[in-house]
Design brief:
The complex is a heterodimer of chains A (about 270) and B (about 230).
Chain A: E1 5-7, E2 18-20, H1 32-44, H2 51-63, H3 66-79, H4 85-98, H5 104-112, H6 128-148, H7 152-161, H8 167-178, H9 187-193, E3 205-207, H10 224-228, H11 238-241
Helix pairs in contact in A: 1-2, 1-3, 3-4, 4-6, 5-6, 5-7, 6-7, 6-8, 7-8
Chain B: E1 3-5, H1 12-15, H2 17-24, H3 27-36, H4 41-44, H5 59-72, H6 86-97, E2 101-103, E3 112-115, E4 124-127, H7 129-133, H8 137-151, E5 158-159, E6 171-173, H9 182-196, H10 202-218, E7 226-228
Parallel strand pairs in B: 2-4
Antiparallel strand pairs in B: 3-4, 5-6
Helix pairs in contact in B: 2-5, 5-8, 6-8, 8-9, 9-10
The chains are: A mainly alpha (about 270), B mainly alpha (about 230).
Chain lengths: ~270, ~230
Amino acid sequence: MCAASVENGVPGADGPDSFRLGAATLPLRLGPVGQLLMNFLAAMNGAGEDADDVYKLALSALREHGDEAIIEIARLENCCRMGDYPTRWGLIHAAAQLHHAAAMPLFRSVVLTPIPPEASANPHDFSTVAEETILGTTAVDGAAKLARDGNKAAVEALFDFLAVPSISIKRAAVQGLLSVQQGESLRGRIEQRLCPEDRFLLDIKPLDVRKATQIDDPEAQLSDSGRAANKPTTPDLPDRTATSNLGAAGRLSSDGPSIDYRGRDPSNFKRED
Amino acid sequence: MATCSIPAIPNKDVSGDNLYGPRICWQPFIDWAWGAHGFKKSYWDDGFGYDNVCNNNLPLSRTLSGIWLLNYSADDYWNEQWSNNILHWGRRYVRNQIDDLRAKCGDGSAIATAFSGFLGIGRRVELYLGFFYSKNVPGRAETLVHESRHLGGKSHNANFPAWSAYGPGKSGADSSWGYKGAWMYGALYLWWFYADGRRTTVALRESARQRANFVIDNAFATHPGFTIA
């Protein structure tokens, strides 16, 4: 959001604000491989009964152009606004899904390019370093996938990533190395490459969420007004409404927005539940 | 009054808005979500989407998408008992805590702020441009969980550790996973969404895993000692 335009914006200031939409999408020139990439991004995020088949077809079509696809991913990632983190993440994730050795230079570049200094005034709220780091760990995981397939260049890249000054990159690289065949035998070499204060990363355990500490009594963690709140529960999705009356929603408000169906093609709003 | 705009919208396939946007375009859901979270018309019109609720370029649709995800991502979403996991009761916690939800510009990068009702500032949650356009749909749901935890009375209680990307020594961290603060709530929600989220995509679940792992690594004064498998 570094290029957002705000006049007089102060979090917490009283009174409503006003919003104007800018250009809806970035204009991009796409060749045939770029179009296949866009199809893959759409398929990667599609739903419905045929989503798996559509995804596999799109992935297969893109894999046929593996080297070119990676170049196109790198080009588009470079074209993105720096602050367009969702799109940049999707492109790097797509490179990882390709499972192609040609992606290694891209992964190396994403991980080893120094992260720019924090651009946010309030990193707790929004951190550019956090967003860049998440792009990096996604690339590390892409390299780790290749390493698990026996790609030696990927294994060496993971060792190089241990020198990046980011605890998350190092953690992802350690986990990646330990996950390759006979990864446990790499512990000594990993330890040598980590500075002493980072060696605790070797003790970090991958965990299933069901084994993590949960919140025992969430109701007790509500504010008094939250505990007293008695709001209707979510409306049932149409497929459940047909068989159950549980969870029926109440109409709480008469001043909410209404869908304007005029001129709208209902088929564009098919829901995939 | 502030006026704001954005230069371009991130790819809506990748952000999840092309998946969830059509789902929120459903009048019973809109009516319920509007009342249950205390949306106020005066804070959602004038460009924020009140007059065009199904337009997934606009803040209102993008907020409702986060709420939809929060409400329907458990397989048996109708089971929201507190004894279940946060994928089930997270929605209940959020709607019980949030009574006043407002769209605002912020400073251009800000995501959200919860005001607990002290110092003469009314109790509410404000959502800013960063929430609508820098976060994907699971990230918006996580933000609502995080801010609701603050409204539940839990502030951050520690400084970020020496290794944290949020800024070593700065305030805003939680002391530990066991403190069960806002960072833990948000990360645990994302973790469950990754592990067992339904009516979504593998890509969005994977994005949740990456973000949750980042929080686990950087937001606690003492590293929890685990990572998401």
